[in-house]
Amino acid sequence: MIELKQLTKQYGKAGSLTTALSELDLSIEKGEIFGVIGHSGAGKSTLIRCINLLERPTSGEVWVNGKNLTSLGKKQLQAERRKIGMIFQHFNLLSSATVYDNIAFPLRLIKTPRAELERKVSELLALVGLEAHRDKYPSQLSGGQKQRVGIARALASDPEVLLCDEATSALDPQTTDSILRLLLDINKKFHLTIVLITHEMHVIQSICDRVAVIHQGGIVEQGPVTEVFLKPKHEVTQEFIRQEMDSGEALRLAMQGQVNGPSRAVQITFLGSKTYESILSHTVHETGVNFAILQGTISTLKDTPYGQLIVRFEGEERAIEDTIRKLLEQGLDVEVIH
Amino acid sequence: MFGLDFTQIDWKEIWTATLDTLRMLGASALFSFIIGLPVGVLLYMAARSTSGLVRFGYTILSFIVNILRSVPFIILIVAMIPITKSIVGVSYGVLGTIPPLVIGAAPFFARLVETALNEVDKGVIEAAHAMGSSTSQIVWRVLLPEARPGLLAGMTITIVTLVSYTAMSGQVGGGGLGDLAIKYGYYRYETEIMILAVVLMIVLVQLLQMAGDRLVRHFTRK
């Protein structure tokens, strides 16, 4: 659906060039929710603006839906942009227009007949739950409502792709969740490809199918969220996840506890339906080891449940080995950490 | 009171002068807006162009606007006499003052337009680009509506400035209240007429400013 090839973006004049993106490749599938996470200044904002050419890359190609946008003329680019919706951190609504007129904006650009425009905007107002606010001005709305107007406006021209530029960063946690749910609904309902950039792991964890981690203008890690989130490889990724879990210090303290006899600290990862099965308790019953839970999370990644426990097995050396082997056999992921 | 006698005033003359002032104001404001608005939009667009040639054009246009703004109005009137004659046929009277008034006020208004457009949120313009708007759609559907309160404020300032310009044009026999105040009050020491003319101009400015402020408030949505 979206293909970025060898994308490079540099700012400034020769001699004092800043490179925002360097030879970046990225491929996004139709219908997926793809997240790009990175710190501010990592290049994620430039990246998403290159997809609809709000920023023109210095070199490289941008392919959206089989068309090379970088090769198009002005008029053709405008036509292609109508198929790419975009929402923004600061909403960017017309302050001089009502909710209705803001949503109607993209339709008026293409001279939609009045009756169709009316029908379309009413549908969108219902979709985002703002029927009661159609004649209000943006300044009379809350942040979450403004973003709903932004979403309705972005969907008005029936786009195939929705770009979300830090769309929830200006919202409080509760509103963030309601907007994320709305995006997820839209993704399912219209089979819309969504690309979002964020600096919050929480956003990725809630709705994304795949994620790319951007650092210093390049992608350092990417893959399905379940993989990247549960087994982060790059240190930037690990840092993002640690922030979300807020666990580094607590774990260090837990590991300091002294135990008599052999023991082993392991990280066990459950994924999918296994998360809610009593695999661990059954296994230790069989092998006769004891365990202490040092740390644990049970949550979901988008709709996939997962659990991640750090436990310390205590008992005979052989029994501990046995336990780990049995857990592995039952499809859990076990990693000995101490 | 203060040895002034208002009973001798020729009210018909005051009325004619007031009408003349309003005519000059109306016509010169209209043409100043018609010329100044596109020039202001052009200044705004040219300053943001990615083409070096267009940005050079901006520098030239901006320079011309600055020159016209820095020439004292009284000199502009005199310097423009041949041009005025060729446009409206005469270089005196109500008609003869309109071209210099327009040339004096249009560049001023163009700058105010540029400033008002600069105030428009960049994010909204970016969003319009993202939605596939053409340049003219961005001007008509985003820039001008979003800048409306600023544009109305600029129009108010321009009209008020034109009131004082019309007074100066009295120097070349332009007619109107300013002419009256100078002719009677300054040359003939008939202080009463001068005071009355000045008061009328103050009232006029007050009314214009109030109307302008009201419109600005009405259209402000922030």
From TrEMBL, chain B:
Source taxon at top rank: Bacteria
Membrane-spanning residues: 25-46, 58-83, 89-110, 151-173, 193-212
Cell compartment(s), UniProt: Cell membrane
GO biological process: D-methionine transmembrane transport
Pfam families in UniProt: BPD_transp_1
Keyword set includes Protein biosynthesis: no
Membrane topology: Multi-pass membrane protein
Chief localisation class: membrane
Protein's UniProt keywords contain Chloroplast: no
Annotated Gene3D superfamilies: MetI-like
Segments forming domain ABC transmembrane type-1: 18-211
GO cellular component terms attached to this protein's record: plasma membrane
Alphabetical UniProt keywords: Cell membrane, Membrane, Transmembrane, Transmembrane helix, Transport
Family of this protein: Belongs to the binding-protein-dependent transport system permease family. CysTW subfamily.
PANTHER family: ABC TRANSPORTER PERMEASE, D-METHIONINE TRANSPORT SYSTEM PERMEASE PROTEIN METI-RELATED
Name of this protein: ABC transporter permease
Lineage of source species: Bacteria, Bacillati, Bacillota, Bacilli, Bacillales
